[in-house]
Predict the 3D structure of the following.
Amino acid sequence: RDQGISKAGNKRVRWVSVELAWAWLRLQPTSELTRWYKKRFDHGNKQRMVGIVALARKRLVALWKYVEHGEVPAGAVMKGN
């Protein structure tokens, strides 16, 4: 089980990560991460705020996997150049 949310780390990085998580929900509505968030947290304002921080963390892990291994998050749509 996860250990909860803390405010450790760089404040600006946390803020940007959460803002990007909100953008992810808008721009990637069919991705697995978005479906996970909506299934688990789309039913209460406080829960939504906790969930967006969890989604931000999951997005950072997915970004690391993309950078390290070229793994695109499941269901994400890549935009061409």
